[in-house]
Design brief:
By secondary structure, the chain is mainly alpha-helical. The chain has a domain of about 80 residues. It is about 55% helix and about 10% strand. It is elongated, with a radius of gyration of 28 Å. The relative contact order is 0.07.
């Protein structure tokens, strides 16, 4: 296994993989924000599911601006993390990126999901009684049950 080494007048350094195009990364972040807005529009308008967040006694509606801003901020933070990994571990940045992403997914707080389920059950009203079991219809030809 040989490593290519480039030399300049004073320095020698190992050749690094080419840097990704910034335009492509910006396009990915914008595309992710647009996809989040499409999902929001389908859920909020087509399916008519109320998107409200309860924090204590306050209820706040989740609008398109909130969805777009959060998507863009999280995308930019991800880009910042990837850029830092590319500087710190240039040869293993993709592997490290996957590891960091997996750790973030495992450690993300689970509380909002429980609160969302609780809020949805409260929005539906009191729990419904289960329907009574349906009995099989008897015909006059059937013998009576003992």
């Amino acid at each position: 296994m040989s490593h290519t080494t480039a030399t300049t007048s004073d320095h020698s350094f190992a050749a690094l993989p080419p840097r990704p195009d910034r335009r492509r990364r910006v396009a990915v972040i914008v595309t992710a924000a647009v996809a989040a807005l499409i999902v929001w529009a389908v859920v909020a308008h087509l399916l008519a599911i109320p998107l409200d967040v309860r924090s204590g006694a306050q209820v706040q509606h989740v609008g398109a601006a909130s969805v777009a801003i959060v998507s863009l901020v999280v995308g930019l933070l991800g880009w910042l993390a990837l850029a830092a990994l590319e500087r710190l571990t240039p040869r293993r940045s993709a592997t490290m990126w996957l590891i960091v992403g997996g750790v973030v997914l495992l450690l993300k707080p689970r509380v909002p999901a429980r609160q969302t389920a609780q809020t949805q059950s409260e929005a539906r009203g009191p729990p419904r009684r289960p329907l009574p079991r349906r009995r099989a219809h008897r015909t006059t030809a059937d013998p009576p049950l003992a």
